[in-house]
Design a protein that fits this description.
By secondary structure, this protein is α/β, with parallel strands linked by helices. The protein has a single domain, classed as Rossmann fold, CATH 3.40.50. The chain contains 6 helices and 11 strands. A 5-stranded parallel beta sheet has the order 5-2-1-6-7. Strands 9-8-11-10 form a 4-stranded antiparallel beta sheet, covered by helices on one side. β6, α4 and β7 form a beta-alpha-beta unit. The longest helix has 16 residues. The N and C termini lie far apart (56 Å).
Length: 241
């Protein structure tokens, strides 16, 4: 045969939260000749139909997938005090992907070594590989690249002990970055804030959303010494415009 051999790109599913890190990771993958993003997957609370700590409702994630032109796989898991329900949902999804010939999952993680190791360990149990397009990049430079590329994203959740209420539901911009205390990562990599991306170079159209209201929630947890601790978060209730 004298036909020219063409190297096939590796198909993968993108773990999609709807926020800036997912969007930036997807953008980089779309320009990577090694991989081909063939679908997205998002986990939702079974009762809330919202994305974890982002608080984003299911219909806004569906609108993103439509604007991206990619199929969306929705994974639901019940409220639980541990990771077992989440892991069960992911395990079932990996079985589904294996049937489609997909063995790679991409994530938008940047710095968190423990989370990276956890993902790699769980995927390896099913002979899957993890891909981290943003890994170990400088977050201040990364958020600048994100804004320069034309991405637009709204702050949908924030640590109320670190970030003022006025920013919640507003666009993440350079004024917001400049307002952050020194201990807050400019990409919110430690969970200080989360976002919903509604426009940018990866989208075929802008997603129109409005801020309905803001709310404040308190979460209780146990400290290592056995005492009770609390964390407070702002949430933006974003709706289709």
């Amino acid at each position: 045969m004298n036909a020219k051999t063409k190297t096939e790109r590796i198909p993968l599913s993108m773990s999609w939260s709807g926020g800036k890190d997912s969007a930036m990771a997807l953008w980089k993958l779309l320009h990577n000749p090694v991989y081909q993003v063939v679908r997205l997957h998002t986990t939702f609370g079974e009762e809330t139909r919202r994305v974890g700590m982002h608080g984003i409702p299911e219909h806004l994630i569906e609108m993103q997938a439509e604007a991206l032109g990619l199929p969306l796989d929705k994974l639901y898991y019940p409220a639980s005090g541990d990771n077992q329900a989440y892991e069960k949902a992911i395990h079932a999804y990996l079985n589904q992907l294996q049937g489609l010939g997909i063995s790679h999952i991409a994530y938008g993680d940047i710095y968190l070594e423990d989370l990276k190791g956890y993902r790699e360990k769980k995927l390896a149990e099913k002979s899957f590989n993890a891909v981290f397009p943003l890994w170990n990049q400088k977050t201040f430079a990364l958020i600048g690249e994100f804004l320069d590329a034309g991405f637009r994203t709204k702050i949908c959740a924030a640590d109320a002990d670190l970030i003022a209420e006025k920013w919640v539901g507003q666009d993440l911009d350079r004024d917001f970055i400049a307002s952050l205390p020194d201990q807050v990562d400019p990409c919110g990599e430690n969970g200080e804030f989360h976002t919903y991306c509604y426009a940018g170079p990866i989208f075929q159209k802008e997603i129109m959303v409005n801020l309905e209201e803001r709310s404040r929630k308190t979460y209780s947890f146990l400290l290592s010494n056995g005492e009770k601790g609390e964390k407070h978060f702002w949430f933006a209730d974003l709706k289709k415009a």
